[in-house]
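Protocol step 4 of 6.
Sequence for Holliday junction branch migration complex subunit RuvA (Nocardioides aurantiacus) entered exactly as in the expression construct, tag removed. Do not edit the line below.
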Amino acid sequence: MIAFVRGRVAGISLTSAVLEVGGVGLELQCTPDTIAGLRHGAEVSLPTSMVVREDSLTLFGFADDDEKQMFELVQTASGVGPKLAQAMLAVLRPETLRRAVAGDDVKTLTTVPGIGQKGAQRIILELRDRIGTPGSYAEPGTTSPATTGTADWQAQVQTGLVGLGWSAKEADRAISAVAPEADQMSTPDVARLLRLALRALSKA
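Step 5 output, structure tokens:
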């Protein structure tokens, strides 16, 4: 398995990054917060987790080892695959997930698209004894927010939502819901707007 990747950032989208390693471009699926810390041309090292399927090999990249470990841990719960695990980390940071599971906080878990009340209760039951004590890891927050021009954020948020499994129509509805928040930003913070859009869709 590939434990980490070190290379030059050759491409960035809202849901993935391409790192050039030895002349080969590796595409890593990443959360908005991880993407926010990357810059074109920069040399970076990202912890990774490879998901192997019969018809695909998918490499997921993370801001730090805590995010990687949480991605792998939540998949040990029944009904949680890589796509849902990534959605969980797109909406909730690892420490927030830890607190939600330890505190039986079903409401917080159901803000993640694809997790209903029963699913949240099952995740809490299965992970409570293994997810760790809240506060045992420092809350990530050293990366700079992903920002973009006013004309671009809507297209980028839509791409991210569609990539997470929502329809274009649902994505448009969520974008309309978060537009007032974007209007208050001097420069739109795409990572934050994507998280707000996901929460808006989970409440619909």
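Step 6, annotate. The chain has a mean pLDDT of 84.
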